[in-house]
Design a protein that fits this description.
212 residues; alpha/beta; Rossmann fold; six-stranded parallel sheet; three-stranded antiparallel sheet; 7 helices; 9 strands; 36% helix; 24% strand; disordered N terminus; oxidoreductase activity; Flavoprotein-like_sf
Amino acid sequence: MLKLVFLANTHNIRLRSLSYEKNSVSLYTEFGVFTTTLRMNLIIAGTNREDSNSLKIAKYYQQELEKKGGDWEVLSLTDLPSNIISTDLYGQRSEAFAPIQEKVSEAKSFVFVIPEYNGSFPGVLKTFVDACAFPASFYHKKAALVGVSSGKYGNIRGVDHFTGVCNYLRMHVLPLKIHIPLVIQELDEDGQMVDDLTKKFVQEQIEEIHRF
């Protein structure tokens, strides 16, 4: 499946349609039908800033979601190729991006942890989405959104903006979205949340993700 996705994007092979079952996706092309199993769930730390609070929140979500069962993996955008703009957009594909694309292709659900950059979500997050194989990477998959900010609004606008991207990609977006303001005050040195009210809201979303 991964090789087909790269081939299709590089050589303009026509993807006629996609078909999703509970744990698999099939691509219908001019050369036949190719099916892959959706094996995992991804939590995307939506910035390439080193040692970001978004990554700490992503790891906290991983910890709490795995208590509910299921496999959750954190993908930090610090892992993107440094030259991704010149190597993996507009039909180009690189070996460095291949392991990331494989994880995205095999994911059935996503949690996006989205920091506020200049009143919206980070440009690198959109670059990541644009670099992923279209439409197989995200179409009809599930997404939960978490806004993070150093200010007092928890990236409300950025989450709204990214919801539009998810809707365009035909993702099923969990209605309950969480906004974590003043994030530096929410975490202790071990990456654990310290505010009881914030933990309550986060746990409510985690319960919804588990049932989603």
